[in-house]
TrEMBL record:
It holds the Pfam family ADH_N. This is Alcohol dehydrogenase. Signal peptide: none annotated. Coiled coil: none annotated.
């Protein structure tokens, strides 16, 4: 099979590799499309904790099952599927096991024509989605669903803030929160991204390069019930100031690093809950897929590249040029 293989940092190369065979509880999927995540970028740059080389990056993918293990009875050859990239979460929905990992390192991932995964990580592809849309759903969709619904406990009519709209998780957060009847606001450094976000569910937004963006947002919203944050840094302090009494902040990342000089009394007086979230359980994934099917949600796609253009695609992701998910089209021969 053809695969993009990483043998040293920042050097992805299209190579031929033996097609995998399934273990007794595994399946092999012939991929039709894969999608990029920031985790892939960290792996390719050699910055991901515990990574191993050589490796085939990629966590997201959709395709057709072409081989099943002897003990697999819940998946059939020829089934159109998407892959839950979270491996070995365990039976406790509230927390992952110590050996939890994500497809794409150290386990070979989806930047390839075929991928081998545990049968329990296979789910039927929602019929209303194209291959590209289906491939875009798993990691970001799961992360967004758990942060918003399982951890954030969003309610109809609440005001929800999504800082830094543009990436895959943020676009799902807007779509999911809107579908659940929340009033959704976003921030971005680009006015066009705010306008685009309004097309898929946002009520409004502000440009965070403005000196008074938090004051603008306060006037627009009257305060925030639930913020879903992946930025951290000084932005997190602003989320505290915007929060209503009894509000929640769910954090699933911190691209700007730790929060400096956080004033805990501000959180105490407002009784703000801060909740960490990451990926999600198999139940979260199943619930997310059902939710997408029920509301006929279609992932927001940015641009599609060929498999051998993976490095160029990652460069686009690193520069933050995308709105929605970047896709790799996988060749079938």
């Amino acid at each position: 099979m053809k695969a993009m293989i990483l043998r040293e940092a920042n050097k992805l190369k299209l190579e031929e590799k033996e097609t995998p065979n399934p273990g007794s509880k595994e399946v092999v999927v012939q991929l039709r499309a894969a999608a990029l995540n920031r985790r892939d970028l960290m792996v390719v740059q050699g910055r991901y904790p515990g990574m191993q080389l050589p490796a085939i990056p990629g966590s997201d993918g959709a395709g057709v099952v072409i081989a099943v293990g002897d003990e697999v009875n819940n998946v059939r050859n020829g089934e159109e599927v998407i892959i839950n990239p979270g491996l070995h979460w365990g039976n406790d929905r509230n927390k992952k096991r110590a050996d939890f990992s994500i497809l794409g390192n150290p386990t070979d991932g989806t930047y390839a024509q075929y991928v081998k995964v545990p049968a329990e990580n296979i789910y039927s592809k929602p019929s209303h989605l194209s291959w590209e849309e289906a491939a875009a759903l798993p990691l970001a969709g799961l992360t967004a669903y758990r942060a918003l619904v399982t951890k954030g406990r969003v309610k109809k009519g609440e005001t929800v803030l999504i800082p830094g709209v543009g990436g895959g998780v943020a676009t799902y957060l807007v779509q999911f929160a809107s579908a659940l009847g929340a009033d959704v606001y976003v921030t971005s450094s680009k006015e066009e991204k705010i306008e685009e976000a309004k097309l898929f569910g946002a009520t409004g937004g502000v440009n965070y390069t403005s000196d008074d963006w938090s004051e603008e947002l306060q006037k627009l919203t009257g305060g925030i019930d639930l913020s879903i944050d992946s930025i951290g840094g000084e932005v997190f302090k602003t989320l505290v100031s915007l929060g209503k009494i009894g509000s929640r902040i769910v954090s699933f990342g911190a691209t700007r690093g730790p929060v400096p000089n956080l004033l805990l009394p501000s959180m105490t007086v407002k009784e703000i809950s801060v909740i960490g979230s990451t990926m999600g359980s198999s139940q979260d994934f199943a619930d997310m897929v059902k939710f997408v099917e029920k509301h006929k949600i279609r992932p927001i796609l940015d641009k599609t590249f060929s498999l051998e253009e993976a490095t160029e695609a990652l460069w686009r992701l690193e520069k933050g040029e995308n709105l929605g998910k970047i896709i790799l089209s996988i060749p079938q021969d």
